[in-house]
């Protein structure tokens, strides 16, 4: 389960960062997770709930996960399109030479604190 390891890493990053400030608690965390990461938002949320219960800093923290769709740009015709059903070719000209332009994201976008 990669989701558990990712949540552990995110929590460690947040804990390390908030030590620099007079923070009582984290109220909200927003993650951006690209479709190509193959991480399940529901599983990430469940893992976070388990970890958050053990941390005073994270109790009652709202986790918001924005899933970024997989988009590509055709190197032949220049069209930008959603990659659906693992079809890694341009749906406009059928060319196989594409460049992924979105969907690889995996980062903490914001952390709100009190």
User: Could you give the count of β-strands?
Assistant: 6
CATH architecture: 2-Layer Sandwich
- Can you tell me the overall shape? elongated
Through-space gap between termini? 31 Å
Low-confidence stretches: none
Number of domains as seen in the coordinates = 1
User: Strand order across the biggest sheet?
Assistant: 2-1-6
Architecture overview:
By secondary structure, the chain is of the alpha+beta class. The chain has two helices and six strands, in the order H-E-H-E-E-E-E-E. It has helices at 2-18, 41-53; strands at 26-34, 62-68, 71-74, 80-82, 98-102, 106-113. It is elongated and about 55 Å long. The mean pLDDT is 96.
Question: Which SSEs are present, and which pair or pack?
Answer:
Elements: H1 2-18, E1 26-34, H2 41-53, E2 62-68, E3 71-74, E4 80-82, E5 98-102, E6 106-113
What would you say about this model in short?
It is built from two helices and six strands.
Features:
114 residues; alpha+beta; hypothetical protein PF0899 fold; three-stranded mixed sheet; 2 helices
